[in-house]
Design goal:
The complex is a heterodimer of chains A (282) and B (319). Chain A is an alpha/beta fold. Chain A has eleven helices and five strands, in the order H-H-H-E-H-H-E-H-E-H-H-E-H-E-H-H. Chain B has eleven helices and twelve strands. Classes of the chains: A alpha/beta (282), B alpha/beta (319). Chains A and B meet through helix 5 and helix 6 of A and helix 3 and helix 4 of B.
Protein backbone atom coordinates (compact mmCIF):
# COMPACT_ATOMS: atom_id res chain seq x y z
CA UNK A 1 0.00 0.00 0.00
CA UNK A 2 2.90 2.30 0.34
CA UNK A 3 6.00 3.88 -1.05
CA UNK A 4 9.49 2.99 0.03
CA UNK A 5 9.30 5.14 3.14
CA UNK A 6 6.18 3.41 4.33
CA UNK A 7 7.05 1.27 7.29
CA UNK A 8 5.97 0.36 10.72
CA UNK A 9 8.38 1.13 13.52
CA UNK A 10 10.25 -1.78 14.98
CA UNK A 11 8.60 -2.98 18.18
CA UNK A 12 11.93 -3.28 19.99
CA UNK A 13 12.48 0.45 19.54
CA UNK A 14 9.36 1.62 21.30
CA UNK A 15 10.70 1.48 24.86
CA UNK A 16 13.63 3.72 23.93
CA UNK A 17 11.24 5.94 22.02
CA UNK A 18 9.05 6.28 25.10
CA UNK A 19 12.09 7.33 27.16
CA UNK A 20 12.89 10.01 24.63
CA UNK A 21 9.26 11.20 24.51
CA UNK A 22 9.25 11.52 28.31
CA UNK A 23 12.44 13.53 28.28
CA UNK A 24 11.10 15.76 25.52
CA UNK A 25 7.87 16.52 27.34
CA UNK A 26 9.62 17.36 30.59
CA UNK A 27 11.99 19.67 28.71
CA UNK A 28 9.16 21.19 26.67
CA UNK A 29 6.87 21.87 29.61
CA UNK A 30 9.79 23.28 31.58
CA UNK A 31 10.96 25.57 28.77
CA UNK A 32 7.38 26.65 28.10
CA UNK A 33 6.52 26.91 31.79
CA UNK A 34 3.43 24.98 30.76
CA UNK A 35 1.00 22.59 32.41
CA UNK A 36 -0.02 19.01 31.67
CA UNK A 37 3.32 17.24 32.03
CA UNK A 38 1.55 14.53 34.05
CA UNK A 39 -0.96 14.00 31.23
CA UNK A 40 1.87 13.71 28.70
CA UNK A 41 3.87 11.21 30.77
CA UNK A 42 0.70 9.18 31.20
CA UNK A 43 0.50 8.51 27.45
CA UNK A 44 4.22 8.37 26.57
CA UNK A 45 4.19 4.59 26.25
CA UNK A 46 0.92 4.53 24.32
CA UNK A 47 2.29 7.12 21.88
CA UNK A 48 5.59 5.26 21.49
CA UNK A 49 3.84 1.97 20.73
CA UNK A 50 1.41 3.64 18.32
CA UNK A 51 3.95 5.71 16.40
CA UNK A 52 6.74 3.17 16.75
CA UNK A 53 4.96 -0.09 16.06
CA UNK A 54 1.31 0.21 15.14
CA UNK A 55 0.46 3.16 12.92
CA UNK A 56 1.06 2.95 9.21
CA UNK A 57 2.33 6.45 8.69
CA UNK A 58 4.96 7.94 6.46
CA UNK A 59 6.82 11.08 7.55
CA UNK A 60 7.81 11.63 3.94
CA UNK A 61 4.19 11.60 2.89
CA UNK A 62 2.13 12.65 5.91
CA UNK A 63 -1.15 12.94 4.00
CA UNK A 64 -0.88 9.60 2.22
CA UNK A 65 -4.51 8.47 1.70
CA UNK A 66 -3.78 4.99 3.04
CA UNK A 67 -2.19 6.16 6.28
CA UNK A 68 -3.68 5.27 9.62
CA UNK A 69 -5.21 8.28 11.34
CA UNK A 70 -4.55 9.15 14.97
CA UNK A 71 -6.47 11.90 16.72
CA UNK A 72 -5.34 13.11 20.11
CA UNK A 73 -8.66 14.07 21.64
CA UNK A 74 -7.07 14.96 24.97
CA UNK A 75 -5.46 17.89 23.24
CA UNK A 76 -3.82 19.23 26.40
CA UNK A 77 -1.21 16.50 26.00
CA UNK A 78 -0.10 18.07 22.75
CA UNK A 79 3.56 18.06 23.83
CA UNK A 80 3.51 14.25 23.85
CA UNK A 81 2.21 14.13 20.27
CA UNK A 82 4.70 16.71 19.02
CA UNK A 83 7.48 14.75 20.72
CA UNK A 84 6.22 11.50 19.18
CA UNK A 85 6.01 13.05 15.72
CA UNK A 86 9.55 14.39 16.09
CA UNK A 87 10.79 10.96 17.15
CA UNK A 88 8.95 9.39 14.21
CA UNK A 89 10.61 11.84 11.83
CA UNK A 90 7.73 14.21 11.05
CA UNK A 91 9.66 17.24 12.26
CA UNK A 92 13.17 17.99 13.47
CA UNK A 93 13.62 17.33 17.20
CA UNK A 94 15.00 20.84 17.66
CA UNK A 95 11.61 22.22 16.58
CA UNK A 96 10.23 20.98 19.89
CA UNK A 97 12.05 23.87 21.57
CA UNK A 98 9.47 26.18 20.01
CA UNK A 99 6.62 24.59 21.96
CA UNK A 100 4.60 27.18 23.90
CA UNK A 101 6.91 30.00 22.83
CA UNK A 102 5.76 33.34 21.43
CA UNK A 103 5.03 33.05 17.73
CA UNK A 104 5.21 29.25 17.74
CA UNK A 105 2.83 26.98 15.84
CA UNK A 106 3.32 24.28 18.49
CA UNK A 107 0.50 25.31 20.79
CA UNK A 108 -0.09 23.81 24.19
CA UNK A 109 -3.17 22.06 22.87
CA UNK A 110 -2.38 20.12 19.74
CA UNK A 111 -2.85 21.96 16.45
CA UNK A 112 -2.64 20.72 12.88
CA UNK A 113 -1.78 24.04 11.27
CA UNK A 114 1.65 23.66 9.76
CA UNK A 115 2.43 20.53 11.75
CA UNK A 116 2.64 17.47 9.51
CA UNK A 117 1.25 14.33 11.08
CA UNK A 118 -1.38 16.02 13.24
CA UNK A 119 -4.78 14.96 11.93
CA UNK A 120 -6.97 17.20 14.06
CA UNK A 121 -6.59 20.20 16.31
CA UNK A 122 -8.18 19.65 19.68
CA UNK A 123 -8.13 21.22 23.09
CA UNK A 124 -11.77 21.34 24.02
CA UNK A 125 -12.53 17.86 25.27
CA UNK A 126 -15.14 15.68 23.60
CA UNK A 127 -14.35 16.59 19.99
CA UNK A 128 -11.88 13.98 18.78
CA UNK A 129 -14.02 10.88 18.89
CA UNK A 130 -16.88 12.35 16.86
CA UNK A 131 -14.51 13.52 14.15
CA UNK A 132 -12.77 10.14 14.32
CA UNK A 133 -16.14 8.51 13.74
CA UNK A 134 -16.48 10.70 10.65
CA UNK A 135 -13.04 9.60 9.42
CA UNK A 136 -13.94 5.96 10.03
CA UNK A 137 -17.32 6.30 8.33
CA UNK A 138 -15.64 7.95 5.36
CA UNK A 139 -13.14 5.08 5.15
CA UNK A 140 -16.02 2.60 5.14
CA UNK A 141 -17.82 4.46 2.36
CA UNK A 142 -14.60 4.55 0.35
CA UNK A 143 -13.87 0.90 1.17
CA UNK A 144 -10.46 1.95 2.45
CA UNK A 145 -8.45 -0.34 4.69
CA UNK A 146 -6.71 2.09 7.03
CA UNK A 147 -7.60 2.39 10.71
CA UNK A 148 -8.64 5.37 12.80
CA UNK A 149 -7.36 5.72 16.36
CA UNK A 150 -8.62 8.28 18.84
CA UNK A 151 -6.80 8.78 22.13
CA UNK A 152 -8.99 10.16 24.91
CA UNK A 153 -8.54 10.92 28.57
CA UNK A 154 -10.69 9.40 31.26
CA UNK A 155 -11.99 12.72 32.54
CA UNK A 156 -12.90 13.54 28.95
CA UNK A 157 -15.44 10.74 29.05
CA UNK A 158 -17.62 13.04 31.15
CA UNK A 159 -18.39 14.89 27.92
CA UNK A 160 -21.78 13.88 26.50
CA UNK A 161 -20.59 14.39 22.93
CA UNK A 162 -18.39 11.30 23.32
CA UNK A 163 -21.39 9.17 24.14
CA UNK A 164 -23.17 10.43 21.03
CA UNK A 165 -20.15 9.28 19.03
CA UNK A 166 -19.89 5.98 20.90
CA UNK A 167 -23.57 5.27 20.20
CA UNK A 168 -23.15 6.07 16.50
CA UNK A 169 -19.96 4.04 16.05
CA UNK A 170 -21.50 1.01 17.72
CA UNK A 171 -24.68 1.26 15.69
CA UNK A 172 -22.76 1.60 12.44
CA UNK A 173 -20.32 -1.19 13.37
CA UNK A 174 -17.25 0.88 12.62
CA UNK A 175 -14.66 -1.85 13.11
CA UNK A 176 -11.96 0.36 11.62
CA UNK A 177 -12.20 2.64 14.66
CA UNK A 178 -10.17 2.19 17.84
CA UNK A 179 -10.72 4.41 20.85
CA UNK A 180 -7.90 4.43 23.37
CA UNK A 181 -8.54 5.60 26.90
CA UNK A 182 -5.75 6.96 29.05
CA UNK A 183 -7.35 5.72 32.23
CA UNK A 184 -5.04 7.20 34.83
CA UNK A 185 -8.00 7.75 37.15
CA UNK A 186 -7.15 11.34 37.96
CA UNK A 187 -8.88 14.30 36.42
CA UNK A 188 -8.60 18.01 36.76
CA UNK A 189 -9.46 18.55 40.40
CA UNK A 190 -9.75 15.11 41.98
CA UNK A 191 -9.76 11.39 41.24
CA UNK A 192 -12.22 10.25 38.58
CA UNK A 193 -13.97 8.09 41.14
CA UNK A 194 -14.73 11.12 43.29
CA UNK A 195 -15.71 13.37 40.37
CA UNK A 196 -17.95 11.35 38.06
CA UNK A 197 -17.23 7.68 38.51
CA UNK A 198 -16.89 5.96 35.13
CA UNK A 199 -17.21 2.43 36.50
CA UNK A 200 -18.29 -0.04 35.35
CA UNK A 201 -16.42 1.56 32.48
CA UNK A 202 -15.84 -1.35 30.08
CA UNK A 203 -19.44 -2.45 30.59
CA UNK A 204 -20.64 0.93 29.40
CA UNK A 205 -18.72 0.59 26.12
CA UNK A 206 -19.93 -2.98 25.65
CA UNK A 207 -23.50 -1.83 26.22
CA UNK A 208 -23.01 0.61 23.33
CA UNK A 209 -21.88 -2.17 21.01
CA UNK A 210 -18.13 -1.90 21.32
CA UNK A 211 -15.50 -4.57 21.83
CA UNK A 212 -13.36 -3.84 24.85
CA UNK A 213 -9.77 -4.64 25.63
CA UNK A 214 -8.05 -3.64 28.85
CA UNK A 215 -4.29 -3.31 29.03
CA UNK A 216 -1.47 -1.97 31.17
CA UNK A 217 -0.84 1.33 29.44
CA UNK A 218 2.85 1.23 30.29
CA UNK A 219 3.52 -2.35 29.14
CA UNK A 220 4.63 -2.21 25.52
CA UNK A 221 4.03 -5.89 24.84
CA UNK A 222 0.53 -5.64 26.27
CA UNK A 223 -0.22 -2.51 24.25
CA UNK A 224 1.13 -4.02 21.05
CA UNK A 225 -0.95 -7.13 21.62
CA UNK A 226 -4.04 -5.05 22.38
CA UNK A 227 -3.79 -3.08 19.14
CA UNK A 228 -3.16 -6.29 17.21
CA UNK A 229 -6.23 -7.85 18.79
CA UNK A 230 -8.28 -4.77 17.94
CA UNK A 231 -7.17 -5.12 14.32
CA UNK A 232 -8.82 -8.53 14.15
CA UNK A 233 -12.18 -7.56 15.61
CA UNK A 234 -14.90 -7.33 13.00
CA UNK A 235 -18.27 -5.61 12.95
CA UNK A 236 -17.59 -3.62 16.11
CA UNK A 237 -15.46 -0.67 17.04
CA UNK A 238 -12.93 -1.38 19.76
CA UNK A 239 -11.97 0.53 22.84
CA UNK A 240 -8.59 -0.17 24.41
CA UNK A 241 -8.84 0.93 28.01
CA UNK A 242 -5.28 1.58 29.09
CA UNK A 243 -4.68 1.53 32.81
CA UNK A 244 -2.04 4.17 33.30
CA UNK A 245 -0.33 6.23 35.94
CA UNK A 246 -0.54 9.98 35.62
CA UNK A 247 2.99 11.38 35.59
CA UNK A 248 4.45 7.93 34.92
CA UNK A 249 8.24 7.80 35.00
CA UNK A 250 8.91 10.63 37.42
CA UNK A 251 8.25 9.47 40.97
CA UNK A 252 7.17 12.76 42.46
CA UNK A 253 4.81 13.49 39.56
CA UNK A 254 3.02 10.17 39.72
CA UNK A 255 -0.60 9.91 40.82
CA UNK A 256 -1.01 13.51 41.81
CA UNK A 257 -3.39 16.20 40.64
CA UNK A 258 -0.68 18.80 41.26
CA UNK A 259 1.31 17.76 38.20
CA UNK A 260 -1.66 18.25 35.95
CA UNK A 261 -0.81 21.92 36.33
CA UNK A 262 2.66 22.38 37.79
CA UNK A 263 5.57 23.05 35.48
CA UNK A 264 8.93 21.45 36.23
CA UNK A 265 11.42 24.18 37.09
CA UNK A 266 14.78 24.39 38.84
CA UNK A 267 15.54 21.52 41.15
CA UNK A 268 12.33 19.71 40.24
CA UNK A 269 13.29 19.82 36.59
CA UNK A 270 16.79 18.52 37.37
CA UNK A 271 15.39 15.73 39.50
CA UNK A 272 12.88 14.75 36.83
CA UNK A 273 15.58 14.58 34.16
CA UNK A 274 17.79 12.63 36.54
CA UNK A 275 15.05 10.07 37.18
CA UNK A 276 14.27 9.72 33.49
CA UNK A 277 17.96 9.27 32.70
CA UNK A 278 18.20 6.48 35.27
CA UNK A 279 15.00 4.91 33.93
CA UNK A 280 16.37 4.91 30.39
CA UNK A 281 19.64 3.34 31.54
CA UNK A 282 17.93 0.36 33.16
CA UNK B 1 -37.15 27.22 0.74
CA UNK B 2 -36.54 23.89 2.40
CA UNK B 3 -38.06 21.96 -0.50
CA UNK B 4 -36.18 24.08 -3.04
CA UNK B 5 -32.92 23.39 -1.20
CA UNK B 6 -33.55 19.65 -1.06
CA UNK B 7 -34.49 19.53 -4.75
CA UNK B 8 -31.27 21.31 -5.69
CA UNK B 9 -29.19 19.17 -3.36
CA UNK B 10 -30.70 16.07 -4.90
CA UNK B 11 -29.43 17.23 -8.30
CA UNK B 12 -26.00 17.93 -6.84
CA UNK B 13 -25.90 14.52 -5.17
CA UNK B 14 -26.72 12.83 -8.45
CA UNK B 15 -23.77 14.53 -10.08
CA UNK B 16 -21.32 14.00 -7.23
CA UNK B 17 -21.35 10.95 -4.99
CA UNK B 18 -19.13 12.76 -2.48
CA UNK B 19 -22.06 14.97 -1.41
CA UNK B 20 -23.49 13.63 1.83
CA UNK B 21 -26.58 14.84 3.70
CA UNK B 22 -26.50 14.25 7.45
CA UNK B 23 -29.65 14.95 9.39
CA UNK B 24 -30.18 15.21 13.10
CA UNK B 25 -33.26 12.97 12.91
CA UNK B 26 -35.42 15.61 11.27
CA UNK B 27 -36.95 16.00 7.82
CA UNK B 28 -39.91 13.60 7.94
CA UNK B 29 -41.38 13.39 4.46
CA UNK B 30 -39.03 16.09 3.18
CA UNK B 31 -35.86 14.01 3.00
CA UNK B 32 -37.51 10.73 2.11
CA UNK B 33 -36.87 10.92 -1.62
CA UNK B 34 -33.22 11.84 -1.11
CA UNK B 35 -32.82 9.05 1.44
CA UNK B 36 -34.38 6.47 -0.87
CA UNK B 37 -32.58 7.64 -3.98
CA UNK B 38 -29.14 8.09 -2.46
CA UNK B 39 -28.97 5.87 0.63
CA UNK B 40 -25.16 5.85 0.50
CA UNK B 41 -25.13 9.65 0.63
CA UNK B 42 -27.58 9.99 3.49
CA UNK B 43 -26.90 9.59 7.20
CA UNK B 44 -29.32 10.01 10.04
CA UNK B 45 -27.05 10.87 12.93
CA UNK B 46 -29.90 10.62 15.39
CA UNK B 47 -30.83 13.32 17.85
CA UNK B 48 -27.17 14.11 18.38
CA UNK B 49 -26.21 17.38 16.74
CA UNK B 50 -22.74 17.61 18.25
CA UNK B 51 -21.82 14.26 16.78
CA UNK B 52 -23.61 15.08 13.53
CA UNK B 53 -21.33 18.08 13.12
CA UNK B 54 -18.20 16.22 14.17
CA UNK B 55 -18.94 13.37 11.74
CA UNK B 56 -19.52 15.89 8.96
CA UNK B 57 -16.14 17.43 9.74
CA UNK B 58 -14.42 14.03 9.76
CA UNK B 59 -15.96 13.01 6.45
CA UNK B 60 -15.18 16.39 4.93
CA UNK B 61 -11.54 16.01 5.95
CA UNK B 62 -11.60 12.84 3.83
CA UNK B 63 -12.91 14.70 0.79
CA UNK B 64 -16.68 14.49 1.20
CA UNK B 65 -18.87 17.57 0.92
CA UNK B 66 -21.25 17.37 3.84
CA UNK B 67 -24.53 19.08 4.71
CA UNK B 68 -25.79 19.01 8.28
CA UNK B 69 -29.52 19.47 8.52
CA UNK B 70 -31.93 20.25 11.31
CA UNK B 71 -34.34 22.85 12.64
CA UNK B 72 -33.52 26.33 13.83
CA UNK B 73 -30.83 26.37 16.51
CA UNK B 74 -30.14 22.64 16.55
CA UNK B 75 -27.59 22.74 13.73
CA UNK B 76 -25.99 25.90 15.05
CA UNK B 77 -26.09 26.90 18.70
CA UNK B 78 -26.51 23.36 20.03
CA UNK B 79 -23.23 22.30 18.45
CA UNK B 80 -21.53 25.64 18.09
CA UNK B 81 -18.11 24.61 19.39
CA UNK B 82 -18.02 21.71 16.94
CA UNK B 83 -18.75 24.19 14.16
CA UNK B 84 -15.98 26.46 15.39
CA UNK B 85 -13.23 24.04 16.39
CA UNK B 86 -13.90 21.12 14.10
CA UNK B 87 -15.47 22.55 10.95
CA UNK B 88 -14.24 26.12 10.75
CA UNK B 89 -10.74 25.81 12.20
CA UNK B 90 -10.10 22.91 9.83
CA UNK B 91 -11.81 24.77 6.97
CA UNK B 92 -13.84 21.63 6.31
CA UNK B 93 -16.34 21.58 3.46
CA UNK B 94 -19.46 21.43 5.60
CA UNK B 95 -22.67 23.33 4.89
CA UNK B 96 -24.66 23.86 8.06
CA UNK B 97 -28.31 24.04 7.05
CA UNK B 98 -30.85 25.51 9.44
CA UNK B 99 -34.49 25.09 8.54
CA UNK B 100 -36.64 27.77 10.08
CA UNK B 101 -34.88 31.12 10.14
CA UNK B 102 -36.26 33.80 12.45
CA UNK B 103 -39.88 33.19 13.46
CA UNK B 104 -40.54 30.47 10.86
CA UNK B 105 -41.63 28.18 13.68
CA UNK B 106 -43.38 30.99 15.49
CA UNK B 107 -45.88 28.86 17.37
CA UNK B 108 -43.26 26.46 18.72
CA UNK B 109 -41.68 28.83 21.19
CA UNK B 110 -38.34 30.45 21.93
CA UNK B 111 -36.38 27.20 21.58
CA UNK B 112 -37.33 27.22 17.88
CA UNK B 113 -36.72 30.91 17.15
CA UNK B 114 -33.51 31.28 15.15
CA UNK B 115 -32.89 34.90 16.01
CA UNK B 116 -29.21 35.07 16.98
CA UNK B 117 -27.74 32.65 14.43
CA UNK B 118 -26.43 35.17 11.91
CA UNK B 119 -24.54 37.17 14.52
CA UNK B 120 -23.00 34.09 16.07
CA UNK B 121 -22.10 32.20 12.91
CA UNK B 122 -20.62 35.16 11.08
CA UNK B 123 -18.20 35.78 13.94
CA UNK B 124 -16.39 32.53 13.22
CA UNK B 125 -13.48 32.73 10.77
CA UNK B 126 -13.81 30.81 7.48
CA UNK B 127 -17.62 30.63 7.80
CA UNK B 128 -19.79 31.99 5.00
CA UNK B 129 -23.35 33.05 5.88
CA UNK B 130 -26.26 32.89 3.45
CA UNK B 131 -29.91 33.79 4.10
CA UNK B 132 -31.92 33.53 0.86
CA UNK B 133 -34.97 35.69 0.31
CA UNK B 134 -37.00 33.35 -1.90
CA UNK B 135 -37.14 29.59 -2.54
CA UNK B 136 -35.81 29.92 -6.07
CA UNK B 137 -32.96 32.03 -4.72
CA UNK B 138 -32.23 29.34 -2.13
CA UNK B 139 -32.01 26.79 -4.94
CA UNK B 140 -29.70 28.97 -6.99
CA UNK B 141 -27.46 29.72 -4.02
CA UNK B 142 -27.35 26.04 -3.08
CA UNK B 143 -26.06 25.36 -6.56
CA UNK B 144 -23.52 28.18 -6.43
CA UNK B 145 -22.33 27.34 -2.92
CA UNK B 146 -21.50 23.83 -4.06
CA UNK B 147 -18.53 25.35 -5.85
CA UNK B 148 -17.43 27.32 -2.78
CA UNK B 149 -15.16 25.19 -0.59
CA UNK B 150 -15.07 25.34 3.19
CA UNK B 151 -17.66 26.00 5.89
CA UNK B 152 -20.97 27.57 4.95
CA UNK B 153 -24.13 28.41 6.87
CA UNK B 154 -27.43 28.30 4.99
CA UNK B 155 -30.40 29.81 6.79
CA UNK B 156 -33.67 28.68 5.26
CA UNK B 157 -36.88 30.52 5.95
CA UNK B 158 -40.42 29.27 5.83
CA UNK B 159 -41.55 32.58 4.31
CA UNK B 160 -40.64 34.06 0.98
CA UNK B 161 -40.16 37.51 -0.49
CA UNK B 162 -42.39 36.65 -3.46
CA UNK B 163 -40.21 38.12 -6.20
CA UNK B 164 -40.26 36.61 -9.69
CA UNK B 165 -37.53 34.09 -10.42
CA UNK B 166 -34.44 35.67 -11.92
CA UNK B 167 -31.65 33.21 -11.29
CA UNK B 168 -29.21 35.16 -13.44
CA UNK B 169 -29.41 38.04 -10.97
CA UNK B 170 -28.22 35.90 -8.08
CA UNK B 171 -24.49 35.78 -7.41
CA UNK B 172 -23.03 34.36 -4.21
CA UNK B 173 -21.43 37.24 -2.30
CA UNK B 174 -23.32 39.95 -4.20
CA UNK B 175 -26.41 41.87 -3.15
CA UNK B 176 -29.29 42.57 -5.46
CA UNK B 177 -30.79 45.98 -6.10
CA UNK B 178 -34.49 45.22 -6.35
CA UNK B 179 -35.57 48.80 -6.92
CA UNK B 180 -33.65 52.02 -7.35
CA UNK B 181 -34.28 55.25 -5.50
CA UNK B 182 -32.49 58.10 -3.78
CA UNK B 183 -34.30 59.26 -0.64
CA UNK B 184 -33.81 56.10 1.33
CA UNK B 185 -32.50 52.54 0.98
CA UNK B 186 -34.16 49.60 2.63
CA UNK B 187 -31.73 46.70 3.02
CA UNK B 188 -33.12 43.29 3.92
CA UNK B 189 -31.91 39.72 4.29
CA UNK B 190 -33.96 36.55 4.22
CA UNK B 191 -37.65 36.23 3.45
CA UNK B 192 -38.50 39.30 5.49
CA UNK B 193 -37.54 41.15 2.35
CA UNK B 194 -41.28 40.88 1.68
CA UNK B 195 -41.95 43.36 4.47
CA UNK B 196 -39.32 45.72 3.10
CA UNK B 197 -40.90 45.51 -0.35
CA UNK B 198 -44.34 46.29 1.02
CA UNK B 199 -42.92 49.17 3.01
CA UNK B 200 -41.16 50.50 -0.07
CA UNK B 201 -44.49 50.62 -1.93
CA UNK B 202 -46.11 52.60 0.84
CA UNK B 203 -43.19 54.98 1.07
CA UNK B 204 -43.39 55.57 -2.65
CA UNK B 205 -47.09 56.29 -2.29
CA UNK B 206 -46.10 58.92 0.24
CA UNK B 207 -43.86 60.37 -2.40
CA UNK B 208 -40.43 59.07 -1.54
CA UNK B 209 -37.91 57.57 -3.89
CA UNK B 210 -36.95 54.24 -2.34
CA UNK B 211 -34.08 51.91 -3.11
CA UNK B 212 -34.43 48.30 -2.02
CA UNK B 213 -31.38 46.09 -1.63
CA UNK B 214 -31.60 42.37 -0.93
CA UNK B 215 -28.59 40.79 0.75
CA UNK B 216 -28.78 37.00 0.56
CA UNK B 217 -25.10 36.67 1.36
CA UNK B 218 -24.14 38.20 4.69
CA UNK B 219 -20.59 36.91 4.75
CA UNK B 220 -18.79 37.75 2.61
CA UNK B 221 -21.12 40.71 2.30
CA UNK B 222 -21.35 42.93 -0.76
CA UNK B 223 -19.66 46.02 0.66
CA UNK B 224 -19.97 48.01 -2.55
CA UNK B 225 -23.74 47.86 -2.66
CA UNK B 226 -23.93 49.07 0.96
CA UNK B 227 -21.41 51.85 0.55
CA UNK B 228 -23.02 52.99 -2.68
CA UNK B 229 -26.43 53.09 -1.05
CA UNK B 230 -25.03 55.09 1.87
CA UNK B 231 -23.46 57.57 -0.53
CA UNK B 232 -26.23 57.85 -3.09
CA UNK B 233 -29.36 57.79 -0.96
CA UNK B 234 -30.58 59.85 1.95
CA UNK B 235 -30.12 57.12 4.52
CA UNK B 236 -30.43 53.43 5.32
CA UNK B 237 -32.94 51.21 7.10
CA UNK B 238 -32.03 47.57 7.67
CA UNK B 239 -34.71 44.90 7.94
CA UNK B 240 -34.04 41.47 9.42
CA UNK B 241 -35.86 38.73 11.31
CA UNK B 242 -33.03 38.51 13.79
CA UNK B 243 -31.76 40.35 16.83
CA UNK B 244 -30.40 43.80 16.17
CA UNK B 245 -27.25 42.66 18.02
CA UNK B 246 -24.78 41.58 15.40
CA UNK B 247 -27.01 40.91 12.43
CA UNK B 248 -27.64 42.77 9.18
CA UNK B 249 -27.86 46.16 10.85
CA UNK B 250 -24.52 45.65 12.53
CA UNK B 251 -23.00 44.44 9.27
CA UNK B 252 -24.19 47.56 7.44
CA UNK B 253 -22.88 49.79 10.22
CA UNK B 254 -19.52 48.03 10.21
CA UNK B 255 -19.20 48.35 6.43
CA UNK B 256 -20.07 52.05 6.47
CA UNK B 257 -17.57 52.83 9.21
CA UNK B 258 -14.89 50.69 7.59
CA UNK B 259 -15.20 52.74 4.42
CA UNK B 260 -15.56 56.05 6.22
CA UNK B 261 -19.04 56.65 4.88
CA UNK B 262 -21.60 58.23 7.18
CA UNK B 263 -25.12 57.54 5.94
CA UNK B 264 -27.66 60.30 6.39
CA UNK B 265 -29.33 58.01 8.88
CA UNK B 266 -29.11 54.34 9.79
CA UNK B 267 -32.06 52.63 11.45
CA UNK B 268 -32.34 49.01 12.46
CA UNK B 269 -35.61 47.14 12.12
CA UNK B 270 -35.07 43.85 13.90
CA UNK B 271 -35.77 42.05 17.11
CA UNK B 272 -34.80 44.08 20.14
CA UNK B 273 -32.40 42.48 22.59
CA UNK B 274 -35.16 40.50 24.28
CA UNK B 275 -36.68 37.03 24.18
CA UNK B 276 -40.20 37.01 22.77
CA UNK B 277 -42.79 36.14 25.40
CA UNK B 278 -45.64 35.10 23.15
CA UNK B 279 -46.01 32.76 20.21
CA UNK B 280 -47.86 33.08 16.94
CA UNK B 281 -47.36 32.66 13.22
CA UNK B 282 -44.55 34.42 11.41
CA UNK B 283 -46.72 37.39 10.39
CA UNK B 284 -48.11 37.76 13.89
CA UNK B 285 -44.69 37.78 15.52
CA UNK B 286 -43.26 40.20 12.97
CA UNK B 287 -46.07 42.58 13.85
CA UNK B 288 -45.87 41.94 17.58
CA UNK B 289 -42.14 42.62 17.72
CA UNK B 290 -41.98 45.50 15.28
CA UNK B 291 -40.46 43.82 12.23
CA UNK B 292 -43.27 44.11 9.70
CA UNK B 293 -43.93 46.60 6.91
CA UNK B 294 -45.72 48.94 9.32
CA UNK B 295 -42.63 49.05 11.51
CA UNK B 296 -40.35 49.60 8.51
CA UNK B 297 -42.54 52.45 7.24
CA UNK B 298 -42.66 54.03 10.68
CA UNK B 299 -38.89 53.79 11.12
CA UNK B 300 -38.33 55.17 7.64
CA UNK B 301 -40.71 58.09 7.98
CA UNK B 302 -39.23 59.03 11.33
CA UNK B 303 -35.72 58.89 9.93
CA UNK B 304 -36.78 60.91 6.92
CA UNK B 305 -38.25 63.57 9.20
CA UNK B 306 -41.47 63.11 7.34
CA UNK B 307 -43.36 66.00 8.93
CA UNK B 308 -42.70 69.20 7.09
CA UNK B 309 -40.36 67.63 4.61
CA UNK B 310 -40.92 67.63 0.88
CA UNK B 311 -40.07 64.33 -0.74
CA UNK B 312 -37.80 64.47 -3.74
CA UNK B 313 -39.18 63.79 -7.15
CA UNK B 314 -39.15 60.06 -7.55
CA UNK B 315 -36.57 58.63 -9.92
CA UNK B 316 -36.72 55.13 -11.29
CA UNK B 317 -37.20 51.99 -9.34
CA UNK B 318 -40.90 51.95 -8.72
CA UNK B 319 -42.33 48.85 -10.31
Amino acid sequence: MAGSNWQRGKPQDTVDMAHRIRRHVVEMTSAGKSSHVGSCLSIADICAVLYGAVLNVDPENPTHPDRDRLILSKGHAGAAIYASLAERGFMPRQMLRQHYQNGSILSGHVSHKGVPGVELSTGSLGHGLGVGVGLAKAAKVRDASHRVFVLLSDGECDEGSNWEAILFAGHHRLDNLVAIIDYNKIQSLAPVKETLDLEPFADKWRAFGWATIEADGHDHDALTAAFAEADGIEHKPTVVICHTTKGNGVSFMENTVLWHYRTPQGEEFDNAICELTELAAK
Amino acid sequence: MRDAFIAELTKLAAADTDRVLITGDLGFGVLTKFWETYPDQFINAGVAEQNMTAIACGMALEGFKCYTYSIANFTTLRCLEHIRNDVCYHDADVTVVSVGGGFSYGQLGVSHFATEDIAILRAIPNMKVIAPTDPWEAAELTAQMAAVPGPKYLRLDKGKAGLPEKRDDVVFGKGRTIADGRDITLLATGAILSEALEASERLRETGYSVRVVALHTLKPVDEDIIVTAARETGGLVTVEEHTICGGLGSIVAEVCMKHGVMPGFLKFVGLDDVFPTVVGDQDYLRAAYGLNADAVVAAALKALGHEGRTPSKQVGGAP
